[in-house]
Amino acid sequence: MNVQFKKGVLNLCVLVLLDKQDRYGYELVQKISDQISISEGSVYPLLRRLTKEGYFTTYLKESTEGPPRKYYQLTELGRSYLDEQLEEWEKFTRGVNALIEEGKHE
Questions:
Q1: In the 3-class helix/strand/coil scheme, how is 16-74 assigned residue by residue?
Q2: How far apart are CA 48 and CA 14, in angstroms?
Q3: Which residues contact 13 (CB under 8 A, 6 or more apart)?
Q4: What is the distance between the alpha carbons of residues 27 and 4, in angstroms, rounded to a whole number?
């Protein structure tokens, strides 16, 4: 699949997963990789950017399996951004699906 397309979808996937619960970077990578083929290196720059833009906050939490982990938590600004992104995604997918259906029937 086109790399640029995946990058846009990845943004939405991370937001949705963090809306459900706080997670650390590798956990996000694993959860997304269960559904979409991504490289681990594609998630961390995204997390840094979205944190810098105020959509996430971070905190460290002790781990039973090594050093403390950095957890990401969605902020109120992040929730608003997620709502906007979901609305755009739904409009986009409706339009694409309509075009696909139209093309199939011709």
A1: HHHHHCCEEHHHHHHHHHCCCCCCHHHHHHHHHHHHHCCCEEEEEEEECCEEEEEEEEE
A2: 12
A3: 32, 35, 36
A4: 22
Question: Which tokens in the block code for residue 56?
Answer: 């996430």
- For 19-67, how does the pLDDT look when each residue is reduced to its tens digit (9 = 90+)? 999 999 999 999 999 998 888 888 999 999 999 999 999 999 999 988 9
Q: Which two tokens stand for residue 26?
A: 């590798």
Phi, psi of 60 (to 5 degrees): -95, 145
